[in-house]
Write a structure and sequence with these properties.
Ammonium transporter fold, 4 strands, 21 helices, Ammonium_transpt, globular, mainly alpha, Ammonium/urea_transptr, two-stranded antiparallel ribbon
Length: about 475
Amino acid sequence: MALPMAYQTGPAVPDWLNKGDNAWQMISATLVGLQSVPGLVILYGSIVKKKWAVNSAFMALYAFAAVWICWVTWAYNMSFGHHLLPFWGKAGPALGQNFLLNQAILPATEHDHKDGTLETGELELLYPMASMVYFQCVFAAITLILLAGSLLGRMNFKAWILFVPLWLTFSYTIGAFSLWGGGFLFQWGVMDYSGGYVIHLSSGIAGFTAAYWVGPRSTKDRERFVPNNLLLMLAGAGLLWLGWAGFNGGDPYAANIDSSLAVLNTNICAATSLLVWTCLDSIFFKKPSVIGAVQGMITGLVCITPGAGLVHGWSAIIMGMLSGSVPWFTMMVVHKRSRLLQKVDDTLGVFHTHAVAGFLGGVTTGIFAEPRLSGLFVAVTNSRGLIYGSLVQVLKQVVGAMFVIGWNVVMTTLICVAIRYVMPLRMSEEQLAIGDDAVHGEEAYALWGDGEKYDSTKHGVHDDETLHNKVATGVTQNV
């Protein structure tokens, strides 16, 4: 049955709107959001010791909520608005309907001159600005959540409350504007298809830096930090993997052939990396590790992100082989021999899984980027990788990475030092010893006997002597 004419041509359906592209962009944004909530919330809450399950999950949940308010109030326009500085946009709200319901516009580079110099252009997308604000917000949120992985099990939650908006404002927006929003790295031709630098390199470096300033976990926790639920950890990891279809598939800003290629390459690289990491664990440690497999999966997803729609499938396999081996080597070999890496307590190894893998992905994108595929992506024109004759692109990728690394080290340090003047960055010793119950007054699992005194009014009618006899004989199932 055909819709009435008013619904086909009304103000909610302007001529420029492509419903398919708009639907895919909102689906992609939702997939990325699901990577964070519940994906990383579940993964973080499961991969840590039981006593830190609530705190770790809550750090992720808080960051997701806080970024939303900051994003629409000032941070979106700092990342994608009008130029303020070569690396920063002008702050401003993204809340008015006159702004959100208009056609989305993004900066683009165009070869307008015969000498090949670049001139800034604008690209009109086929959906409203509201979809763009939504899509970019979930990327900002997951960056803070990934960063949190370096700080689990000891950061003062009140300090985390301050850290999130400060780091979003003074660090994330810089990388986003410089590489995506029309800033100087964007104009120079540094390629970051979907956040290998903006998200992963920055979160890995910032997480490592913040971990230095916050300080390590308790000695007891560093010596033994057993995951409380590996099966739930796999559920969170699965949401992370499948959600990456939106992470990379949404960045052509349209439901086009480049989007399809990006999704396929993402899965190829992740699968290859997981298998390589598992093989290395099996060869050198004699046992395949499920945690290692998840780490390999993540490094593969991270590595392909800077070039997901810019490289061929065979390149994705090579990138997967590198992402399954290089971060494995830095984590399992270099880390154990480096005094600096040993000194800094990076809880989940975010430096290796995101900073190392993100840098690796950016450089290999500079090697494997194919000019025809680059031409399909709105943010670049015909950039070519090393194997297609351009050493310059590799150098650009390295310089871009150095800027992201340097900025995050300096700014994260300044933010941590500033917060430290207001409140402690690290929990008290009592909180570190007890965990969730001391910090939040809540525990992940209500299991009797885990630090709880026996109370006959709660746990049964047996007197203490009866209980002692049952414990001694191993008959405690019904107590």
